[in-house]
Amino acid sequence: MAASSRAQVLRLYRALLRESQRFSGYNYRTYAIRRIRDAFRENKNIKDSEKIEELVNKAKANLEVVRRQ
């Protein structure tokens, strides 16, 4: 993974965790944090740049959904 891709993924990960902290309900908040961490851990060994790009785009869409909540 290129350094810029790694930095982009890390920024996205932090942004998702930061936004999920804003959920007022404890159960929603902990569920969102757990799902984010599990998804990133599950996909941490992917080397295919097309697959990484697809996952990054999916995460960006999910970030927008979290921000609207």
UniProtKB/TrEMBL annotation:
Coiled coil: none annotated. It holds the Pfam family Complex1_LYR. InterPro entries: Complex1_LYR_dom (IPR008011), Complex1_LYR_LYRM4 (IPR045297), ISC_assembly_LYR (IPR051522). GO terms for cellular component: L-cysteine desulfurase complex; mitochondrion. GO terms for biological process: iron-sulfur cluster assembly. Residues 7-65 form the Complex 1 LYR protein domain. Belongs to the complex I LYR family. This is LYR motif-containing protein 4 isoform X3. It comes from Lepidothrix coronata.
